[in-house]
Amino acid sequence: MCGIVGAVSERDVQGILLEGLRRLEYRGYDSAGMAVIGGDHSVQRAREVGKVAALGDAMKANPLAGHLGIAHTRWATHGEPSQINAHPHMSGERLAIVHNGIIENYQELREELRADGFEFTSQTDTEVVAHLIEKNYRALCNLHDSVRAAIARLRGAYALAVVHADEPNHMVVCREGSPLVIGVGIGENFIASDQLALLPVTDRFMFLEEGDIADIKKDGITILDREGQSVEREVTRFEHGADSADKGEYRHFMLKEIYEQPKVIKATMEGRVTKTRVLEQALGTEAANLLENVRHVQIIACGTSYHAGMVARYWIEELAGVACSVEVASEFRYRKHVIQQDTLFLCISQSGETADTLAALRQAKKAGFRAALAICNVPGSSLVRESDLVIMTQAGPEIGVASTKAFTTQLTALLIFTLALARHNGLPEEQEAEIIEALHLVPGQVSDVLALDGEIAEMSKAFMDKNHSLFLGRGSQFPVALEGALKLKEISYIHAEAYPAGELKHGPLALVDSEMPVVTVAPNNDLVEKLKSNLEEVRARGGELFVFADRKADVKAEDGIHVMQIPSVHPITAPIVYTVPLQLLSYHVAVLKGTDVDQPRNLAKSVTVE
Ligand code: HGA
Fold first, then answer.
1. Is the pLDDT confidence value at 524 over 80?
2. Which residue ranges have their beta carbon within 6 Å of ligand 1?
């Protein structure tokens, strides 16, 4: 959340920074700003409320010329979205800063700096950091040292980029708990919250470690670690095509990403499964060792990734016979837990920078778990670097704030992991082969569901004027219902709740009437007959049902029951396939309602604040 970009170059940096912000806008979009050090060695700043386009428009009339600059797109945590709270923040006329994260002790620092005579113009925690660095600068006259001295006093999470007009040839950047990457150019260098922002200018990146402080000049990068020791960070090349941040022919990134699913699910399987078996070594050289004797799996995640973890629990207990617990990271990290012996800690995060998940992982590493496994979509992210074992999803960059392809590739990776674990726990070879064969069919089955797009768009009209909806599923389809409800909430702003279908009569049935559409996923598994009875309960109360059902499940369309037939799928892989029609349904409802599909209100991607 919040996007940072910076550049130091021979050329004017305004265009590079604006394009970087446009690409980072998924991280926050309530205001945007830029500060550039011009030829006269003064700081010029522009800030606008709203999206990056508003800043771009303002800058057409008043361009900022200069070879060193920093910029920011905001997702407010401290202080309303407004021009005065927009970054960059300044201390005096000569120091400017952009920040991603939260400074927890900002109140006490603010009081101290006020007593020192600093005047505050915003409500943000960030402005405190600007003044703190400036205070140090007055004594130390060196930006790097001033930043180091300032961050020693900060509690919380931050990625910072700082420029000072007295040192017009470099910026100082650092990170602790929020992501920051350095883009390595030729005769120019860059920084950003993620690689995507910089793809038009470079494909070579260095990832800062927690506690690093770097000086970025156009012809050199120096990095010191937390202890002040000079360190080298490896330069890696970006693997995905530079077009990933483009919508192409699609109206929205979300739709593009829904349609990419057959390809990326396949990519996530590549190199990890044969026709009939999981290649355990492909999960890491240590995989066999770490998975042996696992007696319990503790899954931690947030949001959509949490739903993926909930599906995995059904798989892990059913196929591996290993106990599995799933918990949202923000709860897990703040309670005492009993750790059973030989528990594997499994974190799921699209970005690998989710603040709560990372914090939970760091606690877990001290707490005596057997090992930590990450399922993640971003190579080089903190989660990936800090885990013992990693399964990368191969979704490619996901730009739409509402997660789609990241979820289905997480499920794919989790099923592969489950089978590897299950093999250590006596899953018969034939059963492994049956499931892998079913997994190979999933990309084709997802394509078949995508072919229903037109019909689903038609169905979505029934939701346009509704304020509430219910989603039902049983067994491993319950998390699919949860994910479907989350998608509808996120992008159409319709209140949606998901229940295990068997819970209906224990409360939510009271809500059912003709104004409450009820969406149900009904694959042909051993729970389908029970599910049909639940549907009757809804129908008997006048509720309108929208059922995504296996052809063979024999759910009949009739008055008030709309049935969309889904290709027959294996019960184990069904959650992956049944997610897709629910994504399309939410997408079309949102389009009909005219909401901002890719950047829904109040949300942002990559939740790097707590
Ligand atoms: N706390 C700062 C930055 C917010 C942020 O990083 N959001 O993700 C602010 O409120 O401006």
1. no
2. 1-2, 28, 74-79, 99-102, 124-126, 609
